[in-house]
């Protein structure tokens, strides 16, 4: 019972830390600006997410694989837009 | 052996997705600008990290607690700076 409730909290956490990046993608895409986003942060975070995904695939942990796969796609979108709109200041 | 190597990948992942936000804090702090960062993203991500921390504390998982405690501090710093420099465009 305790573990089940904790698992629900874990799923809620994974859902929030994943969908959080969707409005950021739209924000950059609509405003065509990403100067305030640090390129190093995006790169390091993306590599970290790739490692989380590898960890999840390695241990076959679906609750780790799913949110990190979505987060990776959203981070790649932000990274692409960051590079595309770079230096428009 | 396999599990140990996977654990190392997990620690590397947690370290990267945590320290990634340090240059973002400095970037906003130095430039006094955060308009390109979406407020909703910061808020949703921060709530998600609070839930990850609760999940880690609940199940007493130190590898979950430590990075999320640091990430929470860094996110709070970004959120504070975002609100402080809001609308300076």
What does this structure look like?
The structure is a homodimer. The first copy, chain A, is mainly α and about 90 residues long. Chain A has a single domain, classed as Monooxygenase, CATH 1.20.1280. In chain A, about 80% of the residues lie in helices and about 0% in strands. Chain A is built from four helices and no strands. Chain A has helices spanning about 1-20, 20-30, 40-60, 60-85. In chain A, helix 1 (about 1-20) packs parallel to helix 4 (about 60-85), helix 2 packs parallel to helix 4 (about 60-85) and helix 3 packs antiparallel against helix 4. Chain A is elongated, with a radius of gyration of 15 Å. The termini of chain A are far apart. The interface of A and B includes residues 3 and 10 of A.
List keywords for this structure.
homodimer, 4 helices, Monooxygenase, mainly alpha
From the spread of the alpha carbons, the general shape of chain A counts as elongated
DSSP E strands of chain A, number: 0
Query: What profile does the largest beta sheet of chain A have?
Result: none
Cα(first) to Cα(last) distance of chain A is: 53 Å
Low-confidence stretches of chain A: none
Q: Helix share of residues of chain A?
A: over 70%
Structural category of chain A: mainly alpha
Strand content of chain A: under 5%
- Assembly category: homodimer
CATH classification class of chain A = Mainly Alpha
Q: What is the mean pLDDT of chain A? A: 93
């Amino acid at each position: 019972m305790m573990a089940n409730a904790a698992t629900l909290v874990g799923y809620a956490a994974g859902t929030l830390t994943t969908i959080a990046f969707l409005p950021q993608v739209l924000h950059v895409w609509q405003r065509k600006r990403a100067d305030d986003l640090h390129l190093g942060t995006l790169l390091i975070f993306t590599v970290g997410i790739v490692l989380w995904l590898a960890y999840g695939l390695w241990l076959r942990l679906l609750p780790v694989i799913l949110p990190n796969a979505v987060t990776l796609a959203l981070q790649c979108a932000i990274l692409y837009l960051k590079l595309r709109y770079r230096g428009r200041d």
